[in-house]
Each structure stands twice: as C-alpha cells, then as structure tokens.
C-alpha cells in the first residue's frame, strides 16, 4: 500500500493558497479514486482507496512530519512507498518535477518530515513561482492563486494521478516546465 500525502494548512482560510497545492491534489485524487475517509486521528485526515492511502495532515505545514510518521508506523509503510506532494517556490508556475530524497530546499513541511522519517521518500514538486523580493515569500505562499493560475495548476492533477501509479517512471513521463 502506498501513502500519498498532500502538504498544506488546514482550514477554509488557506484552501486556495499556493502553499496548499498538496491538499488540492489530494482532494482531486480522493474524488477520482472514490476514496472513503477512514480516520481523523493520526493528526490528519486519512482516506483509503483500493490502491492508496491519502493523507492531509491537520498539524499545519511546519509539523507535517508528525502526521506522516503516525500513519507510517501504524500501517508499517516503507519510505519508498511514501509520496509527498508539495508546492515549490523554485519552480515556475505549473512546473512539475519528481525526485526521491535530497534536501528540503528550505520547505518547512519537508524539514519536519525529514526530521522524523528521514529524507528517502518520493516527492512531487508543483511549481508555484517565486515573488520578486525574498522578503515577500511568506505572504506569497500564503496568498491565493488567481483564477488563471489555479486553472494552470489544475491541469497538472491528471498527470499527478498517472504519476503516482508508477512513480519510478514519472520523471521521464510527466515532468513539465510550466504553464
């Protein structure tokens, strides 16, 4: 069983934020896989389909690792069967990249995960672009996508759905450079 995790912040206020693109993808996958909610424990909302567990941590981004570790330990999931979907400032809006392991790149959600389970898991990096000035980063990631940007991002969701089926082949088949 693979664990697919979308990173984001819980609550309506953050729903369309750039930082919540992981949650957006998980919502899409839950619908497409006719998944049912199986738990609100594990410091997150956990859904199950025939092939996957889908997790939306409710700990806020900076503590995402706590939720993932609880699910990983309970279901005895190996890191190689964990896929984390997250926003990436270093990628152009609408870009899509895949990797296993590596550094957090300054992403606080990934730092939390790395500190609790290590960094040897798969990542699906969704480009959200970067603000012009470094001091604008926090406000930028916590701001909503425009309608046009959201349409660009949503075009990636079917690609991500295909990529999770065989994540090892994903870099060659589903990488995108942006909108």
From TrEMBL:
Main location: cytoplasm
Compartment(s) where it occurs, according to its Swiss-Prot or TrEMBL record: Cytoplasm
Annotated site (Stabilizes the basic form of H active site to accept a proton): 87
Enzyme Commission number(s) of this protein: 3.1.1.29
Catalytic activity: an N-acyl-L-alpha-aminoacyl-tRNA + H2O = an N-acyl-L-amino acid + a tRNA + H(+)
Record keywords, A-Z: Cytoplasm, Hydrolase, RNA-binding, tRNA-binding
Residues of the active site: 19 (proton acceptor)
Binding site for tRNA: 14, 60, 62, 108
Key word Hydrolase present: yes
GO molecular function: peptidyl-tRNA hydrolase activity
Keyword check for tRNA-binding: yes
Residues flagged as site, Discriminates between blocked and unblocked aminoacyl-tRNA: 9
PROSITE patterns: PEPT_TRNA_HYDROL_1, PEPT_TRNA_HYDROL_2
Subunit (UniProt): Monomer.
Role description: Hydrolyzes ribosome-free peptidyl-tRNAs (with 1 or more amino acids incorporated), which drop off the ribosome during protein synthesis, or as a result of ribosome stalling. Catalyzes the release of premature peptidyl moieties from peptidyl-tRNA molecules trapped in stalled 50S ribosomal subunits, and thus maintains levels of free tRNAs and 50S ribosomes.
Family, as annotated: Belongs to the PTH family.
HAMAP family noted in UniProt: Pept_tRNA_hydro_bact
NCBIfam families tied to this protein: pth
Name of the molecule in the record: Peptidyl-tRNA hydrolase
Annotated organism of origin: Caminibacter mediatlanticus TB-2
Lineage: Bacteria, Pseudomonadati, Campylobacterota, Epsilonproteobacteria, Nautiliales
UniProt gene name: pth
């Amino acid at each position: 069983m693979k664990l697919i995790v979308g990173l984001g912040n819980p609550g309506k206020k953050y729903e369309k934020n750039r930082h919540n693109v992981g949650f957006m993808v998980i919502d899409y996958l839950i619908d497409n896989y006719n998944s049912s909610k199986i738990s609100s424990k594990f410091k997150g909302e956990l859904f199950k389909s025939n092939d996957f567990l889908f997790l939306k941590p409710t700990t806020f981004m900076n503590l995402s690792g706590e939720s993932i570790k609880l699910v990983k330990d309970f279901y005895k999931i190996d890191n190689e069967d964990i896929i984390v979907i997250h926003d990436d400032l270093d990628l152009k809006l609408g870009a899509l990249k895949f990797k296993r392991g590596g550094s957090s790149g300054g992403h606080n959600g990934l730092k939390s995960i790395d500190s609790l389970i290590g960094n040897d898991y798969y990542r699906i990096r969704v480009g959200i672009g970067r603000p012009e000035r470094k001091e604008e980063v926090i406000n930028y990631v916590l701001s909503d996508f425009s309608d046009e940007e959201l349409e660009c991002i949503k075009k990636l969701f079917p690609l991500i759905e295909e990529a999770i089926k065989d994540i090892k082949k994903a870099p060659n088949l589903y990488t995108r450079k942006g909108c």
